[in-house]
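Before going further, it is useful to explain how the protein records used in this thesis are read. An example of such a record is reproduced below.

***
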Amino acid sequence: MKVLLVRHGISENLPPGQDGVKVNSQRALTGPGKKKMRRAAEGLMRMVERPDLIVSSPLLRAHQTAEILADVFKIDKIATTAALSPGKRPNELLAYLKSHGDSKPGSQAGGALVIVVGHEPDLGLFTSWSLTGLTESFIEFRKGGMCLLEFPAEARPGRAKLLWMCRPRQLRQLAR
């Protein structure tokens, strides 16, 4: 199984607490954030095949990012999981991926490709844990940044292989 981890695009800032303020979960992508994310997704199409599954955090900015990816890759459905909510443990996401990301009929050679859209520092922690088995993050995702991991048949912490990691600007340059 291959897992493409994507941090959501540029989103609204959370204003200081006051009555009627949007809560963190309802922060949306900005106009420039949507435009940059679409360009990055177009660049991504040059690097990976069509995914078998796109799964998102339930937070609005991540879901909007997943919608952009789904539109570019012509995917009809986006799955949502609480395992991608901020503060969740890496093993919760891995359990979800094992149950939903197995090779499906028609999957590309080498197993399913699952795009996962979430947040920092959780994506960095999941990536570090997947590569080393340690629960210390040594990888940081910029907004719109992505990395591709490959898991062996038996996905476990410390067993993943990093295939590549790109900053959003690098992906946007590929779209040209």
In short: Residues 147 and 165 are 4 Å apart (CA to CA).
